[in-house]
Amino acid sequence: QVQLVESGGGLVQPGGSLRLSCVASGSISSIYGQGWYRQAPGKQRELVAIIIGNNNTNYGSSVKGRFTISRDNAKNTVSLQMNNLQPDDTAVYYCNVLLPQLGSVISYYGQGTQVTVSS
Questions:
Q1: What mean pLDDT do residues 43-71 have?
Q2: How far apart are alpha carbons 59 and 80 in whole angstroms?
Q3: Is the separation of the CB atoms in 107 and 2 below 8 Å?
Q4: Sequence-distant (≥ 6) Cβ neighbours of residue 32 within 8 angstroms
Q5: CA-CA distance, 86 to 17, in Å (whole number)?
Q6: Which are the contacts of 72, defined by CB distance < 8 A and separation ≥ 6?
Q7: H and E: helices and strands count for the chain
Q8: In the predicted model, is pLDDT for residue 39 greater than 90?
Q9: How open is the CA angle 65-66-70, to the nearest 5 degrees?
Q10: Which of 33, 24, 38 lies closest to 85, judged by CA?
């Protein structure tokens, strides 16, 4: 079993900042990648940012230059610093971890944390 515990969501005004964190625990021997996805009402889940390995990062086009993803490998933790938040960033944010298992990669998601950007 793998558990992902997210924290840091909330309500922020446009232009503000939030920092999300996620700790992975359970049956984990190694981590292939960690990241964040989000889903707004009526929309599909989309990639926000992901780290593969130690420093291979990929960002969704709408957050480039505003969001920064980081990992603490020793603590199995991934964080997302979100700056200059806009109303379109309002969504449920889901932590994601990629674990190598039997020659494949298994994806796990957390339960999600709400981020609301509103004045």
A1: 95
A2: 11
A3: no
A4: 52, 53, 98, 99, 100, 105
A5: 10
A6: 78, 79
A7: 0, 11
A8: yes
A9: 90
A10: 38
pLDDT at 65 exceeding the cut of 90:
yes
Chain position carrying tokens 């992975």: 24
Beta bridge partners of 10: 115
Alpha helices in 37-116 (DSSP H): none
Place of tokens 């957390």: 110
User: Token digits for 103?
Assistant: 């020659």
Q: What is the pLDDT of residues 105-114, one digit of tens each?
A: 999 999 999 9
Instruction: Decide: 83 and 69 in contact? Cβ < 8 Å.
Output: no
By C-alpha distance, which of 26, 4, 29 is closest to 113?
A: 4
